[in-house]
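Data card: per-record layout.
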Amino acid sequence: MKPLLLVDGYNVIGAWPEAREKGYALDESRDRLFHLLQDYAGYSGEEVVLVFDGHKSERRTRHVDGHPGASVVYTRQGETADSYIERQVYLCPKYRQVRVATNDALEQSQSLAKGATRVTAGELLRSLKEIRQGESRRYVQAGMAKKNPIASRLTAQQRDILERLRRGG
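The structure for this 169-residue chain is written out next.
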């Protein structure tokens, strides 16, 4: 079973300097964060769930938009992202590795008490940036080479070419 990363979306967006500096609208920030997390899921091998609060919305049901490796959840009216994340941590089997990305101290302590590990919004954003810049790509590719015998047969140059093609460049 893949490790699970649960991300408190608005909490991470609030700590994201690039979103503030470039003046991203909230919709654009959500989309950009989700795309970064999709890339991260592909590199890390983790299942990523990005959760946004809907407790003040008119939405009566929870909305889940699933994609390979990553999904985004908009909670229903009256439900916070914190409560959704805490419930998911509680429902995960003890043997599954779970991390929670948030700066919310109460949510961190609740998640830690239920067996998850925590990552701050800043730590997550640094990891996303490193993967985008390729600084940790060697580490991740070394891990992928162990899982993928074809990747272990490619030279570094061939992997770089394939990576550029994958990114559309």
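Known properties of this structure: The chain has a mean pLDDT of 82. The longest helix spans residues 26-44.

See the next section for split statistics.
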